[in-house]
């Protein structure tokens, strides 16, 4: 049975947020603002119905959904996009898959002890290094980007390499690397 995530959580830390926002093509001014924020989370979890509030001094974002039911998510407050979203449980982790203008995007939320963790994932298309390309060369071969060893430090659990899978069959995507991944941590607030 999945854990109940209901609670109010104070922001503790984030890793690699700027690179992740840049990979989403978020403008530099908005990236700089986002990096200054220390958003809290308030979660109301009643059975399959969830309300997840991300609260900050700049903007608040409310995500309300039924687990396992696809819905249209309006991300205009964050990056000006809309996407089709589905949130499901995988063991004790809440997993979100977002399909839309930015493919292969999503996140995972889970508790470890009393702390709440979130990892945003963006599987980036593989790109052949410029040094291997020649004008007019139709080759489809791709080289794997080097893995960033810091990318597996999502939490004390570590080793979160395959948090989300590519959703488009046959899509050439990179393994989770530093640019397509960021992690955040919150601790519970005692009220």
TrEMBL record:
InterPro entries: Calycin, ILBP, Lipocln_cytosolic_FA-bd_dom
Keyword set, alphabetical order: Cytoplasm, Transport
Compositionally biased spans, kind Basic and acidic residues: 130-146
Main localization, broad class: cytoplasm
Location in or out of the cell: Cytoplasm
Cell inner membrane as UniProt keyword: no
Every Lipocalin/cytosolic fatty-acid binding domain range: 7-111
Region (Disordered): 128-164
Gene Ontology MF terms in the entry: lipid binding
Gene Ontology CC: one annotated term: cytoplasm
Sequence similarity: Belongs to the calycin superfamily. Fatty-acid binding protein (FABP) family.
Protein name: Retinol binding protein 5
Organism: Equus caballus
